[in-house]
Amino acid sequence: MAFLQGKTALITGFASERSIAAGIARAMRREGAELIFSYQGEKLAPRVTEFAASLGSDSVHPLDVSSDDDIEALAAAIKERHGGLDIVVHSIGFAPRDELQGRFVDNVTRQGFGVAQDISAYSFAALARALLPLMQGRQGALLTLSYLGAERAVPRYNVMGPAKASLESTMRYLAADLGPEGIRVNAISAGPIKTLAAAGISGFRSMLSKAEGMSALKHNVSADEVGNVAAFLCSDLASGITGEVTYVDAGFRMMGFTESGGEEK
Ligand code: NAD
Ligand code: 0WE
Asked: Which residue from 94, 99, 156, 260 puts its CA 20 to 30 A from 179's CA?
């Protein structure tokens, strides 16, 4: 098929082979895309460089989205190296760890709320704004990663919930603005996956097993399952889809009830 042949894609948010960004990169490469990677912090540089090489790429660039300079420098580097860009994958989320435990009402702070919004939501708008000049006239697509906590109260997701709600709204405003230019903007709301961002969240393991039991398909989704949908949404096959949240959650959200309440399959 190779439905991304001739497309150039920036993949942000690679931290390990388990990252959702890694699953997206594998699927996009399989479908013929040329890949560009960004990474946060020099510690990650060797890992992302090795992963990029495994997918035929040596275009690897630093990006901390809290830095306007980094965002500008990334846009300049991509322009210089590739001339243009078809696809941007935003797979970045962060809140201070202390706020992802206990009750929202007891742990929310002005500082933590602001950081979650800045890194997890504003950064999508900032990337779109900086990279737009590279995407003109190419039927491009932007994609971000959300979670059900945007619209339902999920225990301990706390300050990330409002940040993902803000991200999903940001996605719709970008889609409205960029539609006339032929650029599509979408989100995937993924089910829980054991990545670095999930490791160390207390209760995540029990949540994974409950989610599995409560899902229609009785499995937890993998980064590669998310990757396949991401590749489709960013391809010309999805030319009629923009401003939408697509659920890649094994049919968790649509269920009203299960016989066991998720405690067993
Ligand atoms: P991950 O830890 O592999 O990736 C998170 C990435 O965010 C890392 O690469 C990290 O470097 C990057 N990041 C954090 N702060 C940054 C900053 N200031 N500048 C640049 N990069 C920064 O975890 P993941 O699960 O692959 O997360 C990717 C996205 O998927 C996130 O938006 C997350 O909210 C979302 N998501 C995750 C799950 C899940 O259960 N794992 C489910 C739904 C949505
Ligand atoms: O979006 C996420 C993870 C977001 C995340 C994770 C961390 C851990 C490390 C944001 N910031 C941080 N900060 C850190 O210091 N997910 C969708 C995965 C996730 O995280 C949860 C979940 C799920 C699902 C936290 C609590 C409850 C459920």
From this structure: 94
Are 231 and 3 a contacting pair, CB within 8 Å?
yes
Edge-first strand listing for the sheet containing 245-248: 60-62, 34-39, 8-11, 87-90, 141-146, 184-190, 245-248
pTM over 0.85? The answer is yes
> Within 13 Å, how many C-alpha atoms sit on residue 168's CB side?
18
Q: Is 190 in the pocket of ligand 1 (CB under 6 A)?
A: yes
State in Å: Cα 260 to ligand 1 middle: 31
The yes-or-no answer on residue 173 being catalytic is no
Active site residue 122: no
Q: What share of the chain is helix, strand, coil (3-state, %, to 5)?
A: 45, 15, 40
Nearest listed ligand to the Cα of residue 121: 1
pLDDT of residue 264: 59
Give the mean pLDDT of 27-50. Answer: 98
Is the minimum distance from the CB of 147 to ligand 1 under 6 angstroms? yes
Of 233, 223, 246, the residue nearest 26 (C-alpha): 223
- What letter represents residue 153's amino acid? A
Dump the DSSP string for 83-124: S--SEEEE------GGGSSS-HHHH--HHHHHHHHIIIIIHH
The answer to whether 88 and 152 have CB atoms below 8 angstroms apart is no
Please give the mean pLDDT across all residues of the chain: 97
Rounded to whole angstroms, the Cα distance separating 91 from 243 reads 17
In contact, 181 and 138? CB cutoff 8 Å:
no
